[in-house]
Write a structure and sequence with these properties.
Length: 165
C-alpha cells in the first residue's frame, strides 16, 4: 500500500518539464537535478512535495526525450508513483526499468492535494479526500516483479536474466 498527496499536472508533460533541458549539465549529478524536478511545470513542486507523494498527469505523460533522466529524477525526489491517463511509450518503459511505478488510470477523479492510497495488489486507488475508488490498468506480473526488485538492472542482478514466471 502506497500513500501520499496528489500533485496534479495536465496533458503532455514532457521529459523537459520533468528534468529541465536547460540543466542538461547536471545529468551526471542526478540528486542535484532532482532538486529541479518538474520546476518548468510547477516552480514550487520540488520544494513543496513530500517523499511518497504522487505525480498525477493527463494524457501523454513523459513525451519527448528517450533519456532515463526524467523518471530517475522523479524517483530520486521521492515520488511514490506517477498516475496518468496515458504515457509516452518510452517514458513508461524507462519508468518501469528504473523501478518507478507508472499507473494508467482515470485521473479526472483526482484533484491537486487529494490524499491517495494505491493498492497495487487489488488494482485500486482510493481517493481518501473524495472518498471514491479509481480502478487502474493492471500491470503484467513481470513488471511488478521488476518494480519489486527495484528496477530492471537489479532484477537481472538478482536472477542473472529475465525471470518472466
Amino acid at each position: 500500500m502506497k500513500k501520499g498527496k496528489a500533485w496534479k499536472f495536465g496533458d503532455d508533460i514532457s521529459t523537459d518539464h520533468i528534468a529541465p533541458g536547460r540543466l542538461f549539465h547536471l545529468r551526471t549529478n542526478l540528486p542535484e537535478l532532482a532538486k529541479h524536478v518538474l520546476e518548468d511545470a510547477d516552480p514550487e513542486f520540488a520544494s513543496k512535495m513530500s517523499i511518497g507523494d504522487f505525480v498525477v498527469g493527463g494524457n501523454n505523460f513523459g513525451l519527448g526525450s528517450s533519456r532515463e533522466h526524467a523518471p530517475q529524477v522523479l524517483k530520486i525526489a521521492g515520488v511514490n508513483a506517477v498516475l496518468a491517463k496515458s504515457f509516452a511509450r518510452i517514458f513508461f518503459r524507462n519508468a518501469i526499468n528504473i523501478g518507478l511505478l507508472a499507473i494508467i488510470c482515470d485521473t479526472d477523479k483526482i484533484n491537486q492535494g487529494d490524499e491517495l492510497e494505491l493498492d497495487l495488489s487489488k488494482g485500486l486507488i482510493r481517493n481518501k479526500t473524495q472518498e471514491i475508488q479509481i480502478e487502474m490498468t493492471a500491470l503484467p506480473d513481470v513488471m511488478i516483479k521488476i518494480l519489486n526488485d527495484g528496477g530492471l538492472a537489479k532484477h537481472i542482478e538478482k536472477y542473472g536474466d529475465f525471470q518472466l514466471v
